Amino acid sequence: MAHWLIKGEPDSYGWEDLVRDGGTEWDGIRNATAAKNLRAMKVGDELLFYHSGTAKAAVGVARVAREAQADGDDGRWVSVRVEPVRPLPAPVTLAAMKANPALAEMATIRQSRLSVSPVTAAEWATVLGLATA
Q1: Considering only CA atoms, which of 49, 29, 51, 50 is closest in space to residue 38?
Q2: Residues facing 84 on adjacent strands
Q3: Residue 55 φ/ψ, nearest 5 degrees
Q4: Mind listing the pLDDT tens digit for each residue in 15-50?
Q5: Are 130 and 14 within 8 A, CB to CB?
């Protein structure tokens, strides 16, 4: 199983919306690297759901429920189906991630504008540990 981080704007579609809806199509991603990451996702992969904008914090764990399918007519873009798994015990802020040396190479820190990024097993464990600290 792989791990990923997906970013959502809490004002447009946040964790609470995902929980309320029981899942959603993660579509509208128009960045080549993010689309490549969506294509690499497999059913069962876990996702950190991160609130971007003013919140800037990982707030929940979601799961890939369906692998990539076309998003639009030109074939460049894809979407995946995601479902909520559980909220994090406490939000893990971007500041806390940046302050932790174990996360210095985390893709979301190195490429802050990337909306879908991979998370290593060690980074996953660190973020989950920060959520319970």
Answers
A1: 29
A2: 62
A3: -70, -50
A4: 999 999 999 999 999 999 999 999 999 999 999 999
A5: no
